[in-house]
């Protein structure tokens, strides 16, 4: 799996890509991450990538030329990719969307900054717009990291047990059931007896019940989307 990241701040990704699972996946060649900086495609001595918005308003807008050229350069250098713009106006990211993104061999993630990006970037070189949720970040880099992390988990070999992606929150439209490990009792709180019973069918039923209960309490909207209803 390959990721192309178009960003003004590639240094933000250094520690993120070195540690833990992603670091091991990169060392094993399971994922590759490339960076392209739009500042490298400017023509003025200040390497300007933003300008005042037409029509007036606060803040600055990212210019189309450096971003479009950066994206085209990355595609020319390493081949076609599904091109994503990370923006608060994009479609909210979901686990189902993450799973579908993992089917692409290459993803190109463009990180916005300032008050926004010239609309012509969307029109010319973007396939899809995504958002982490209904809030605003200072830039798209954190969102790009989230996508790299989430999508990489579906690449075979990245996780020690690939089956774990099938059991976690949102994989079946529900939040994940509670998890426990040793010791069996900690500060007066015991692990539910069913998990110690060895009855795998009953454990499976308990986990589903707990997933339903947790989802109903914390995210009833997920049940509605799944057609379960609040009383199921």
Question: What features would you describe in this structure?
Answer:
The longest helix has 19 residues. The chain folds into two domains: 151 residues, SPOUT methyltransferase, trefoil knot domain (Alpha/beta knot, 3-Layer(aba) Sandwich), CATH 3.40.1280; 56 residues, Orthogonal Bundle (Trp Operon Repressor, Chain A). Helix content is 36%, strand content 17%. The C terminus is likely disordered. Strands 2-1-6-5-7 form a five-stranded parallel β-sheet.
Question: Outline of this structure?
Answer:
The chain is of the alpha/beta class and 232 residues long. Helix content is 36%, strand content 17%.
Keywords:
Alpha/beta knot, Trp Operon Repressor, Chain A, 5-stranded parallel beta sheet, two-stranded antiparallel ribbon, 9 helices
Uncertain runs are 228-232
- What portion of residues belong to β-strands? 15-25%
**Would you tell me the overall average pLDDT?**
93
**What would you give as the CATH superfamily of the largest domain?**
SPOUT methyltransferase, trefoil knot domain
Shape: elongated
List the helices and strands and how they pair.
Layout: E1 2-6, H1 14-18, H2 20-27, E2 32-36, E3 50-51, E4 61-62, H3 64-78, E5 82-92, H4 95-101, E6 106-111, H5 119-125, E7 128-131, H6 141-152, H7 164-167, E8 185-186, E9 189-190, H8 200-218, H9 220-225
Parallel strand pairs: 1-2, 1-6, 5-6, 5-7
Antiparallel strand pairs: 3-4, 8-9
Helix pairs in contact: 3-5
């Amino acid at each position: 799996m390959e990721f192309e990241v178009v960003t003004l701040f590639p240094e933000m990704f250094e520690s993120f890509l070195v540690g833990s699972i992603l670091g091991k996946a990169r060392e094993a060649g399971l994922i590759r991450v490339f960076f392209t900086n739009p500042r490298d495609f400017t023509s003025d001595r200040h390497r300007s990538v933003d300008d005042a918005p037409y029509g007036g308003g606060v803040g600055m807008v990212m210019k189309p030329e450096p971003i479009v050229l950066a994206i085209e350069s990355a595609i020319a250098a390493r081949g076609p990719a599904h091109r994503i713009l990370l923006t608060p106006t994009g479609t909210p990211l979901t686990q189902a969307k993450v799973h579908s993104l993992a089917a692409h061999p290459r993803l190109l993630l463009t990180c916005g900054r300032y008050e926004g990006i010239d609309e012509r970037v969307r029109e010319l070189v973007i396939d899809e717009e995504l958002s982490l949720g209904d809030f605003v970040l200072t830039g798209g880099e954190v969102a790009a990291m989230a996508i790299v992390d989430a999508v990489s988990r579906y690449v075979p070999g990245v996780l020690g047990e690939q089956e774990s992606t099938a059991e976690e929150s949102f994989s079946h439209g529900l939040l994940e059931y509670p998890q426990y490990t040793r010791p069996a009792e900690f500060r007066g709180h015991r692990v539910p007896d069913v998990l110690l019973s060895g009855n795998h069918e009953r454990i499976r039923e308990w986990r589903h019940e707990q997933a339903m209960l947790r989802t109903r309490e914390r995210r009833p909207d997920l049940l509605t989307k799944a057609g379960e209803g609040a009383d199921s």
